[in-house]
C-alpha cells in the first residue's frame, strides 16, 4: 500500500488481530517438488473443499422441479434455504473454536456468494462475496500466506465448479449481465487469476484461447481456459458474436497485458458499479471506513 494511502491506527480497528492469535515470522516451506503436498494437505484448505463438497451434494439432493418457466428453477430456493439454515455450522467446521465469535460474520459472505434466492440469479457481486469470505478467513488467521496458491487453485476453483453446477441445474439468470458486451455472464475473477497463471507460458498465447483444440487439450490445467470451455458449452454460435469482449482480448499480444487490462476492467466494471456494490455487506472484518491520507 502506498504511503499516502495508509490508515491511521485510530481509524482502523479491523487490523487488530484476535487476542489469542500467535504470530511467527513467515518462512519458506516448499523447498522441493514433494513439498508441494504440504499446501495440498493444508487443513483449512481441505475443510473448505469439504464445505464446498457439501454444497455440491445438496444440489444432487435437490433436483429441479417441473415448472412453466425455463429459467430460474424454484428448487434453487429450497437449496438456498438449506444453506441459509446451515451456513454458520458449515463455517464453524473451518474456523477454530477460539475464533468462534467470528463465525456469524464470516458466514454472511458465504450465504451472499451463491446467488440471490428471490431473483434466482448469480453474478460478479456474488463472486465478490466469496472472495470476501476468503479474505475474512485470511484476516482472522484461518488461511495463511502459504495457502495462497491453494486458495485460488483448489478452493476458488472448487467454488467455480459448484457455481457452474448451480447455474446449469437451476438455470439461474445472470445478474446484471451486459450481454455480448460483458466479459462473461457470471464470473470475472477467474479470468484475472487464470491470465496470471499463463504469464510467460512457453507456448500458450492469448490468441490460443479462441482455438477449440488448444482449449480442449489444456483446460484441465489452466483456469482461464476452463472458463472459456464453460462459455462454449453454454452458448451457441460464433465465439466472436456471443463473447465479443473476450474475442477482442484474444488479440492482445501477451498474458501480462491481458492480466493488467482485466484488473483495470474489474475495478471499473465491478468494484465501481453501484448495481454491484450496493449489495455488498460490510462488518468489522471488512469495514467501510474511508482511506485517510497522511
Automatic annotation (TrEMBL):
Q: So what does this thing catalyse?
A: [protein]-peptidylproline (omega=180) = [protein]-peptidylproline (omega=0)
Q: Name one GO biological process term.
A: mitotic spindle organization
Q: What class of enzyme is it?
A: isomerase
Source organism of the structure: Enhydra lutris kenyoni (northern sea otter)
Name the UniProt record assigns to this protein: Serine/threonine-protein phosphatase 2A activator
Subcellular localization is given as:
Cytoplasm; Nucleus
Gene3D superfamilies linked to this entry: 1.20.120.1150
Which GO CC annotations does the UniProt entry carry?
cytoplasm; nucleus; protein phosphatase type 2A complex
Q: Which family does it belong to?
A: Belongs to the PTPA-type PPIase family.
What is known about what this protein does? Answer: PPIases accelerate the folding of proteins. It catalyzes the cis-trans isomerization of proline imidic peptide bonds in oligopeptides. Acts as a regulatory subunit for serine/threonine-protein phosphatase 2A (PP2A). Modulates PP2A activity or substrate specificity, probably by inducing a conformational change in the catalytic subunit, a proposed direct target of the PPIase. Can reactivate inactive phosphatase PP2A-phosphatase methylesterase complexes (PP2A(i)) in presence of ATP and Mg(2+).
Assigned keywords, A-Z: Acetylation, ATP-binding, Cytoplasm, Isomerase, Magnesium, Metal-binding, Nucleotide-binding, Nucleus, Rotamase
Task: Output the Pfam families linked to this UniProt entry.
Answer: PTPA
The GO molecular function terms of this record are: ATP binding; metal ion binding; peptidyl-prolyl cis-trans isomerase activity; protein tyrosine phosphatase activator activity
Region (Disordered): which ranges? 1-21
InterPro entries this protein is in?
A: Phstyr_phstse_ac (IPR004327), PTPA_C_lid (IPR043170), PTPA_sf (IPR037218)
EC number(s) for this protein?
Answer: 5.2.1.8
Q: Which residues form a coiled coil?
A: none
Amino acid at each position: 500500500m502506498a504511503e499516502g494511502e495508509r490508515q491511521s491506527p485510530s481509524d482502523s480497528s479491523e487490523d487488530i488481530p484476535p487476542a489469542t492469535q500467535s504470530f511467527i515470522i513467515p518462512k519458506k516451506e516448499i523447498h522441493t517438488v514433494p513439498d508441494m503436498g504440504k499446501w495440498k494437505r493444508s487443513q483449512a484448505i481441505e475443510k473448505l473443499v469439504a464445505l464446498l463438497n457439501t454444497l455440491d451434494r445438496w444440489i444432487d439432493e435437490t433436483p429441479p422441479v417441473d415448472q412453466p418457466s425455463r429459467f430460474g428453477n424454484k428448487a434453487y430456493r429450497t437449496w438456498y434455504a438449506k444453506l441459509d439454515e446451515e451456513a454458520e455450522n458449515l463455517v464453524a467446521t473451518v474456523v477454530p473454536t477460539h475464533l468462534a465469535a467470528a463465525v456469524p460474520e464470516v458466514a454472511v459472505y458465504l450465504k451472499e456468494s451463491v446467488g440471490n434466492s428471490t431473483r434466482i440469479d448469480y453474478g460478479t457481486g456474488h463472486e465478490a462475496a466469496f472472495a470476501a469470505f476468503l479474505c475474512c478467513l485470511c484476516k482472522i488467521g484461518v488461511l495463511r500466506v502459504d495457502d495462497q496458491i491453494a486458495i485460488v487453485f483448489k478452493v476458488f476453483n472448487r467454488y467455480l465448479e459448484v457455481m457452474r453446477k448451480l447455474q446449469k441445474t437451476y438455470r439461474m439468470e445472470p445478474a446484471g449481465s451486459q450481454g455480448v458486451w460483458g466479459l462473461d455472464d457470471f464470473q470475472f475473477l477467474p479470468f484475472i487469476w487464470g491470465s496470471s497463471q499463463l504469464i510467460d507460458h512457453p507456448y500458450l498465447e492469448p490468441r490460443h484461447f479462441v482455438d477449440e483444440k488448444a482449449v480442449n487439450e489444456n483446460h484441465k490445467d489452466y483456469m482461464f481456459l476452463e472458463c472459456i470451455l464453460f462459455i462454449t458449452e453454454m452458448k451457441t454460435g460464433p465465439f466472436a458474436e456471443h463473447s465479443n469482449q473476450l474475442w477482442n482480448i484474444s488479440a492482445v499480444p501477451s498474458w501480462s497485458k491481458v492480466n493488467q487490462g482485466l484488473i483495470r476492467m474489474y475495478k471499473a466494471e465491478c468494484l465501481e458499479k453501484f448495481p454491484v456494490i450496493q449489495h455488498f455487506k460490510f462488518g468489522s472484518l471488512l469495514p467501510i471506513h474511508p482511506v485517510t491520507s497522511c
